[in-house]
Specification:
four-stranded antiparallel beta sheet, 26 strands, alpha+beta, Immunoglobulin-like, 740 residues, Rossmann fold, single chain
Length: 740
Amino acid sequence: MPFAHGAAGPRAPAGMGDVPEPCPQAPLAVLSKVELRVSCKHLLDRDTLNKSDPCVLLLMQSQGQWMEVDRSEVIKSNLNPVFAKIFTVDYYFEEVQKLRFEVYDSHGQAGLGTHDDDFLGGMECTVGQIVAQKRVTKPLFLKYGKFAGKSTITIISEEISGNNGYVELAFRAKKLDDKDLFSKSDPFLEIYRIDDDRSEQLVYRTEVVKNNLSPIWEPFKVSLNSLCSCEEKRKLRCVVWDYDSRGKHDFIGEFFTTFEEMQKAMGENKVQWDCMNPKYKIKKRNYKNSGVVVLLDLKIHRVYSFLDYIMGGCQIHFTVAIDFTASNGDPRNSCSLHYINPYQPNEYLKALVAVGEICQDYDSDKKFSALGFGARIPPKYEVSHDFAINFNPDNDECEGIQGVVESYQSCLPKIQLYGPTNVAPIISKVARVAADEERTKEASQYFILLILTDGVVTDMADTREAIVRASYLPMSIIIVGVGNADFTDMQILDGDDGVLRSPKGEPVLRDIVQFVPFREFKNVSGAATSPSCRERRSSRAFDVRERERERELAPLRRGPESRARSGERRTRSRPCCPAHGQCHVPCAVCRVSSCRERRSSRAFDVRERERERELAPLRRGPESRARSGERRTRSRPCCPAHGQCHVPCAVCRVPCAMCRVPCAMEMRRGSIQPRQWGQGALEGDLLAGRLQGWRALAPAEGISSVPRALVASPVARLSAPEPDTPPRAALPTRSLPPSR
């Protein structure tokens, strides 16, 4: 049995009006939001004295595992519950999204049980099935596919129309009827929406106020889409009940209204309705009402998306926060994530530039705030979690992305990396600026906070609270995980697997956080891998390089006639690879461009097939090579003078064209024993090999003498033996294969 545990809104931009909100995220797939309402009938009674206290868990399958998305409230002593909780899920039309609804018997403060006796039944379906049918009723099943008696579950779906505003309501009642004999009533209020087909959908259920005939219920928030389907004249039915612990609630009275009528309660005005009991109205002549329900306050909040702010003329205010905790490593060490390499930027700079270049297009002044956290800063070297990296607390802005990079590089030598990784102060600081901007009449700025960190935050509870508060402001947060740490816990802040909630249980108003592990999105460049072709990063990166090579070789496969017609040169004079000689095709290892004239299309195809057979093990990926017992890297030298290769030249099969030292393939065949080459390893052997290779080549080319440049070349001079070192035996001369 699968089981898993788990103020006013932003001001409208000038000239926007009531703009329907697009999806808060912009994924590659088509996304829409769907609301699911759940009810059950004829549930199993697992309790001895009372009836079951059901609760529904919603789980979604992700990467083969069931993850809890949300859960409903617990309804006491009820075998036919109608849950007020509304589940909101993302709907992707082109994906199969599997859902599982599990019903459990709750045990008060002990929570949901995990034993089979507490399981009342489950049902699996897909989001597409619910959306297509709009109303799905299916039987519940126990373990091993057994029916849970006559138990059924009903799910009603409704797609969110796009207007994602919400309303805050505050009700109270006066002089309600007393339904209890020895005490006063325990009233609670339910609000139902009447649909076009005359069916009623439960919108909200208030808490129970014990022993009170004039209760004041807590204010609550509900979306306009759930309350009235964004139709102000749609009828609403409000019912007042007297709570009974056995589940048999006593009916006190009801009244009908519309959202249009409720809006009269805005400001200091109040609206009230007579709570009527139809049976009493018929039986009693002098019956007036069973009490009065008063709407104390109504506030409408419009939720605007990022696109609404941008289209409304808002400018982006970009802030970057950089993690300077000690877990990044000493910046003077090349292994540190903050190490300043003079030849290439570190991962912090790569992530900063990647995001900043996009955001700067929406910023008119091109000034970015740059903050740091988790370091000791001068002059007192006290730990700070929201300091300006330009050390100007009055003005933390830098001129463009280049200004942020320069401030970052100049800041590193002045601070001491420390800890812990607290990001709540940074979020709260930017949120205060956004709140001040929202209070102005213009509200012309939208704030984006980019947090670059190398690990999981230590103040998770404070961070969740700060994010919930910031979700009411014109603000978004991008968290980029730098390095190879485990960022699994950071997915909680993203909210993709469920609604993010504060420690007190309050959900975010809108999804404003996006977490990205930088290692999954950075490009694997050729510079990251040495020309000696170490172990390939992954099969995917290898396939990308293969496609590039195929595009490069496409003109060669068309033959000499086609190349002549297209005006392409048949010869290329640029060198191919200094380590592997001048070949007829790009080197099979380092992928440097080709050089000499191709002999013929037929000979080229023969060599191409030979090279394909030789590279076949590399294309099978690291897993296949591990299963077949092959080593993922080969460390035997091909050419001691020009680097270590995995394979010899894939086409011409000759030793290195510069020094004529045999390649690793010949050493592996046993014709020549491999030797250990270190500093000063060439000595006389390299010079001897070059001279003998030249002598072998001289008769065929008609050359009578050894060129002076060959002996006096830098390689030859480096390889010349020291005066006191006896010369070693020269490598055996090896003749070149006949040219084709």
